[in-house]
Design brief:
The complex is a heterodimer of chains A (about 525) and B (about 350). Chain A is α/β, with parallel strands linked by helices and about 525 residues long. Chain A contains 23 helices and 17 strands. Chain B is of the alpha/beta class. Chain B folds into two domains: about 170 residues, Rossmann fold; about 140 residues, N-(1-d-carboxylethyl)-l-norvaline Dehydrogenase, domain 2. The chains are: A alpha/beta (about 525), B alpha/beta (about 350). At the A-B interface, strand 11 and helix 17 of A face helix 4 and helix 5 of B.
C-alpha cells in the first residue's frame, strides 16, 4: 500500500470502527474493558519478550486511565486502542516487496527471486520454477479475472485446504501479470521463510489470530473494506481456515464477505469513477494435501470445535514442505487452480463486459439494489441478506469448480466398502479399529468406483463438478494406480496399500479425509453412513 | 435513479385474489394498478369497474385502474404483487423480470407449487427476475369474504425487513391485518399444502360425514403439513400461524373454497374434469397434490403423508372416495404428536 493510502486507511478504519460502537457510554465502556481484558489475558500466555513487556505497559496505562475517565474520556481511549490495532495491521504491509512485484518486469523478478535464499529450496526441485509452472494448471475464467481487475476492484475468494494455497495463488497472480492482492494472513505463516516470501508477494498483511478481542476483529474487517474501497484487490479464504474435514467449504464467514458490498456502497456514495467490486471464487485442488494428517486429526478430535490455529503442522517444517512438493511433482501430479465465473457483491453472475446478469441472461442495473429514495444507502439488515445471497453463490461456485482427483475417488470407494462391511459401527470406532476385516477385495473397490463415477459424470455433465484428466478418462485401473502411488509417496503411513487382489486400509483417517472432498454433492454412492 | 413513482403498488394478475387485493388497496386510498393479461378485462375494470369473470356481482373502486401493458405497470410502483395461478406463474414472472429493477419490492400471493420442479413461487421469482427483495403474502383470505368487507388477516414473509415493512405500510389501515414473518419457505408451503386437505374435507363433507370427521382430517392434515414443511426447511411454528392452521381452517370448511368444492363434487361422484369445468377457475389443490406426491415420493417421505397419498389416488388413479376414506381409517394409529415434537 502506498504511504498516502496507508494514512488514510488508518484514519478511516479507526473512524468507522468507532462509529459502530456509537455514542452509548455503556457500549463504549464495555468494549474498552473487554478489549483490555482479552489482551491482558492473551499476553499472560505469550513468551516473555520486549514486545510483550511494552504492550503490557501500554495496556496497563490505558486501563488505569479508563478507570478514572468519564464517558468522553473512555471513548477517546477506545479510539486510541482502535488506532493502535489499525496501525499494527496496516503497518505489516511490506511496501518494498509490493512495489518490487508491481513495478519491475517479470523477468527481472524471476532473476531477483533466484538470488534469494528461500528460493534455493525451490531450485532444489527438478527444474525449479519451470516445474511449478508445469504442474500448476491455471484454468477457468482467467481472462475475465484480468479484465475485471482493470474495470473495478477484485476480491478473490478461494477454497482452502493447505498453506500451499497461498503460494499457488501468489504464483498464479504473478503469472497472470496481476498486481499483488491484499491478503490477511495468520502470523504463523510468516514464520516460514518460503511462505513468508510469497505472502509478501501476495500483498499480505499480518493477522494475529491470538487476539480475541471483538475490537480487533472489527478493525480487520474495516481494514479489508477500506482497502477494497481504495481499489486494492483483496484475497481471502471465506471458509475462515483450512478445511479440517477435507470437504469443500459451504459454510462461509459472512463478516468479511460483506465488506465487498460495504465498499461498493461507499464507492457509489463517493461517486467514484470505478465503484465496482467483483467477487471471483476460485478453487485449488491437489491429489495430496500436505497437512492432511494434522487436519483430519484435528477434525476428528473435536468435530466442530477445531483449533483455529495450528502452529505445529507439516508446514512449519521447510524440509517436509520441500519433500512434499518434490514428491508431488515427481509423480507428475497437477495442481488445479480454477477461476470461477465472477460475481457481483449480490451473488449475480458478471459477464465479460463487467455487467451483472440475471439467471435469464438479462443485464441488471446492480446499483439499484442499494438505492433507496433515490440514493445509495446502507441498510444493515438488507445488506446482511445480500451477503447471504453472495455466500450461497460462492458456495455453489466452489462445488462447481471442484476438481475431483483419483485419490478422492479411490478413498471414497474404499470408505464405502468399509461402511458396508460394518454398518453398525460408529465412525470413530471404524476409523480407529477398521472394522471386521483389514482389507477389501480389489474388485469390490472397482465396482464402487464405477458406480460413483457414473454419478460424478452426471454431475459433471450438468456442470456441477469437475473431474481431473485421469478421473475423466474413467480408466479405473489407471486411477487406482495413480491414487496408490500418491498415497505411497508422502504421508507417514499410506492411506491404502494393495497386496495381490486386496486393498488394505492402513490410515483410515486419511481415507476419510480424501473421501470427504466428494461429500456435499448429493451423490448417494458417497453419502453412506455417518 | 429510483425517484418517486406514480403508484404505491401494482398487482400483476386479474384473477379473483389479485383483483381483491388491488380493490382492497384502492379502497384504502392507495394508488394501485392491476395488470391483466387480456386487454378486454383491463377495459372492463377501467370502464365498468367490474371483473365479471372472476368476481361477478362486485363493484370495484373507481380509483382502481388496470392495464395490459406490463412495462408501464411494473415500472410504475415500488411494490409489485404477483397473483397468478401456479401454472402460468413462471411465464408471467419472466415478463415481470423484463422490467423490474433491484430497488423494487417483489412479492407474490399464489398458493401452489410448480408441478414439474416442485419449486415454490418465490424460487421462481428469483429465477425469472433480478429481484432479491422478494416475499410472499399468505393466509386465510377467501376473496369473496374480503370483497364483502369482512375483516381478515394475512402474513407477509420475507428475509428482508424492507419487504415486510413496506408491505405492512401498504396494508396499514385496511381491513387486512398484515402480520410479518421471516419463514418464506414455511409460509409458502403451508399455503400450498392446505389446498390438498381442503380437497379431502370437501370429500368428507360431500359424503355427509360430520364435523368430527372434518376436524380429524384437518388436524391430521396439519400434521402432514408439518412433516412435509419441516422436511423442506420450513419452521414448525409457522404452521401454527395464519399461513398454516389459519388458512387450513378457512379453506377446509368454507363452501367458498374452490378446492373444498372440488372435493364436494368428487364425493357426489362427478368426474374431476367436470368439476373443474363447472368451477370455471383454477383449483390449485389439484396440481399441488401431484407436485407434493411426486416430491414426497422422491424424498422418501410419502409414507408420512397418507392423506396426500389418498387424495392423489382419488384425483389421478381413479380410486373411489369412499375407498380412500376407508384406507385412511385403516392406518395403524400411533403417537398423535410425534411429528410435532420433531421426533418420529
Amino acid at each position: 500500500m502506498e504511504d498516502k493510502d496507508r494514512e488514510r486507511v488508518v484514519v478511516e478504519v479507526t473512524h468507522r470502527v468507532m462509529e459502530t460502537y456509537g455514542r452509548d457510554p455503556r457500549t463504549v465502556e464495555q468494549a474498552l474493558f473487554d478489549t483490555l481484558y482479552e489482551e491482558r489475558l492473551r499476553l499472560k500466555t505469550e513468551k516473555d519478550s520486549e514486545e510483550v513487556k511494552s504492550l503490557s505497559k501500554y495496556y496497563g496505562s490505558v486501563r488505569s486511565q479508563a478507570m478514572k475517565a468519564d464517558a468522553s474520556g473512555q471513548r477517546e481511549l477506545l479510539g486510541d486502542l482502535t488506532k493502535h490495532f489499525t496501525e499494527e495491521v496496516s503497518g505489516h504491509f511490506d511496501r518494498h516487496v509490493y512495489s518490487l512485484a508491481t513495478r519491475i518486469m517479470p523477468t527481472v523478478i524471476t532473476a531477483t527471486l533466484n538470488t534469494l535464499s528461500p528460493l534455493k529450496l525451490i531450485q532444489g526441485l527438478p527444474r525449479g520454477f519451470d516445474t511449478l509452472q508445469d504442474q500448476l494448471i491455471l484454468q477457468g475464467e482467467i481472462e475475465a479475472l484480468r479484465d475485471l481487475a482493470d474495470r473495478g476492484t477484485v476480491v478473490l475468494v478461494a477454497t482452502h485446504q493447505s498453506h500451499l494455497d497461498s503460494i499457488m495463488l501468489g504464483w498464479a497472480l504473478f503469472k497472470l501479470g496481476l498486481p499483488p492482492f491484499t491478503y490477511g494472513a495468520g502470523m504463523n505463516l510468516f514464520s516460514s521463510k518460503i511462505l513468508g516470501y510469497f505472502m509478501h508477494n501476495l500483498g499480505a498483511y499480518k493477522v494475529d489470530r491470538r487476539k480475541k478481542a471483538e475490537l480487533y476483529k472489527d478493525v480487520l474487517k474495516a481494514y479489508a473494506g477500506c482497502t477494497i474501497e481504495l481499489g486494492y484487490h483483496n484475497m481471502f479464504f471465506p471458509g475462515g481456515t483450512r478445511t479440517r474435514s477435507g470437504a469443500v467449504e459451504q459454510k462461509l464467514k459472512m463478516g468479511l464477505l460483506g465488506m465487498g458490498l460495504d465498499a461498493y456502497i461507499h464507492n457509489l456514495r463517493a461517486k467514484k469513477e470505478k465503484p465496482d467490486v467483483f467477487i471471483v471464487p476460485c478453487t485449488i485442488n491437489y491429489e495430496l494435501v500436505l497437512e492432511a494428517e494434522t487436519l483430519i486429526d484435528d477434525y476428528l478430535k473435536e468435530v466442530g470445535k477445531s483449533r483455529y490455529i495450528i502452529t505445529d503442522d507439516e508446514f512449519s517444517k521447510p524440509q517436509v514442505v520441500l519433500d512434499f512438493v518434490r514428491k508431488l511433482f515427481s509423480l507428475n501430479s497437477p495442481i488445479h487452480l480454477t477461476i470461477s465465473r465472477p460475481l457481483d457483491v449480490f451473488g449475480n453472475m458478471v459477464d465479460e463486459d463487467g455487467n451483472s446478469i440475471d439467471q435469464r441472461g438479462r443485464v441488471i442495473d446492480r446499483r439499484r439494489y442499494v438505492y433507496r429514495n433515490g440514493r445509495p444507502s446502507f441498510d444493515s439488515q438488507r445488506d446482511k441478506e445480500y451477503t447471504v445471497e453472495l455466500a450461497s453463490a460462492i458456495a455453489d461456485a466452489f462445488h462447481r469448480d471442484t476438481v475431483i482427483k483419483a485419490t478422492n475417488l479411490v478413498s471414497s470407494s474404499v470408505y464405502s466398502c468399509l461402511r458396508q462391511q460394518n454398518p453398525d459401527v460408529d465412525l470413530y470406532k471404524l476409523l480407529r479399529a477398521g472394522g471386521s476385516a483389514d482389507s477389501i477385495p480389489l474388485t469390490d473397490a472397482y465396482k464402487r468406483i464405477d458406480l460413483t463415477l457414473r454419478s460424478l459424470r452426471r454431475l459433471s455433465d450438468l456442470g456441477k463438478i469437475r473431474m481431473d484428466r485421469t478421473v475423466g478418462r474413467a480408466d479405473t485401473v489407471l486411477m487406482m494406480g495413480e491414487a496408490l502411488a500418491h498415497f505411497q509417496s508422502f504421508h507417514q503411513h499410506p492411506a491404502i496399500v494393495r497386496h495381490g487382489d486386496r486393498l488394505y486400509h492402513v490410515d483410515r483417517n486419511l481415507i476419510y479425509y480424501y473421501r470427504n472432498r466428494l461429500t456435499g454433492f448429493g451423490m448417494k454412492e458417497v453419502e453412506v453412513g455417518p | 435513479m429510483s425517484a418517486a413513482r406514480e403508484l404505491d403498488a401494482v398487482v400483476v394478475g386479474g384473477g379473483s385474489f389479485g383483483t381483491t387485493l388491488a380493490a382492497l388497496l384502492a379502497e384504502n386510498k392507495k394508488r394501485v394498478k392491476i395488470w391483466t393479461r387480456r386487454s378486454e378485462q383491463a377495459k372492463e375494470i377501467n370502464k365498468a369497474h367490474a371483473n365479471s369473470r372472476y368476481l361477478p356481482g362486485f363493484k370495484l373502486p373507481a380509483s382502481l385502474k388496470a392495464t395490459a401493458d406490463m412495462e408501464s405497470a411494473v415500472r410504475a410502483a415500488p411494490i409489485v404483487i404477483v397473483a397468478i395461478p401456479s401454472k402460468s406463474f413462471r411465464e408471467v414472472a419472466n415478463k415481470v423480470g423484463e422490467f423490474i429493477r433491484g430497488d423494487q419490492v417483489l412479492v407474490h400471493a399464489t398458493k401452489g407449487l410448480e408441478v414439474e420442479t416442485y419449486k415454490r413461487m418465490s424460487e421462481i421469482l428469483r429465477e425469472e427476475t433480478c429481484s432479491l427483495k422478494v416475499g410472499v403474502i399468505s393466509g386465510p383470505n377467501l376473496a369473496v369474504e374480503v370483497m364483502n368487507g369482512y375483516p381478515a388477516g394475512a402474513v407477509i414473509a420475507s428475509h428482508y425487513s424492507e419487504v415486510i415493512e413496506s408491505v405492512q405500510r401498504l396494508f396499514a389501515g385496511s381491513r387486512m391485518r398484515m402480520y410479518g414473518g421471516r419463514d418464506v419457505t414455511g409460509t409458502e408451503l403451508g399455503g400450498a399444502f392446505k389446498n390438498i386437505i381442503a380437497l379431502a374435507t370437501g370429500v368428507s363433507d360431500g359424503m355427509g360425514f360430520g364435523d368430527n370427521s372434518k376436524a380429524l382430517l384437518m388436524t391430521r392434515g396439519l400434521n402432514e403439513m408439518v412433516r412435509y414443511g419441516v422436511a423442506l426447511g420450513g419452521n414448525i411454528l409457522t404452521f401454527g400461524g395464519l399461513a398454516g392452521i389459519g388458512d387450513l381452517m378457512a379453506t377446509c370448511a368454507s363452501p367458498l373454497s374452490r378446492n373444498y368444492r372440488v372435493g364436494l363434487g368428487l364425493a357426489a361422484g362427478e368426474k374431476l374434469e367436470a368439476v373443474i369445468e363447472s368451477l370455471g377457475q383454477v383449483a390449485e389443490g389439484v396440481p399441488t397434490t401431484a407436485a407434493v406426491h411426486d416430491q414426497a415420493t422422491k424424498m422418501g417421505i410419502s409414507g408420512d403423508l397418507p392423506i396426500v397419498e389418498e387424495v392423489h389416488a382419488v384425483l389421478y388413479e381413479g380410486r373411489g372416495t369412499l375407498q380412500a376414506l376407508k384406507n385412511l381409517m385403516n392406518i395403524p394409529v400411533g403417537d398423535e404428536l410425534s411429528a410435532l415434537r420433531g421426533g418420529d
